Amino acid sequence: GRAAAIAYARAGLPVGFAGEGFDLADVASTRRDDVGLLIIEGRVLNTTGNAKPAPKLKAIVSGPDDKVLKEWVFAGPALPPNAAEPFKVELKDLPQAADKLVVTFSE
């Protein structure tokens, strides 16, 4: 049977990227192939001393040959200064072949 987890890779983020002042922690995913769902949870950290609006997050799944199979963009939580807020999202239409997940910040 297929592994229930998708390998999570931490994306290298350039300076000045879309989510500047944010970071991600404790990202975990659960796949439900019976219903084609990918459930991602984790925490978004505001690393600045300023309240920040909710960042947009992007989840990217790729297959065995590292070909990107699907991307989703979803809203993260709004963050007070120097705070960490949890998020949980259910993403639909997970491709069966997906075996790698990257979660990063979107424009």
Show the helix and strand layout.
Elements lengths: L6 E4 L11 E11 L4 E10 L9 E7 L5 E8 L8 E8 L8 E6 L2
Parallel strand pairs: 1-7
Antiparallel strand pairs: 2-3, 3-6, 4-5, 4-7
Structural write-up:
The chain has no helices and 7 strands. The chain has strands at residues 7-10, 22-32, 37-46, 56-62, 68-75, 84-91, 100-105. It has 107 residues and is mainly β. Helices cover 0% and strands 50% of the residues.
Brief overview:
This protein is mainly β and 107 residues long.
Distance between the termini: 37 Å
Structural class: mainly beta
Sequence of secondary-structure elements? EEEEEEE
What ranges have pLDDT less than 50 throughout 5 or more consecutive residues?
A: none
Largest sheet at a glance? 4 strands, mixed
Total number of β-strand segments? 7
Envelope shape: elongated
Mean pLDDT across the residues is 84
Report the helical percentage: under 10%
Quaternary structure of the protein: single chain
Rg from Cα: 14 Å
The amount of beta strand, in percent, is: over 45%
What is the tally of helical segments? 0
Side-by-side strand order of the widest sheet: 1-7-4-5
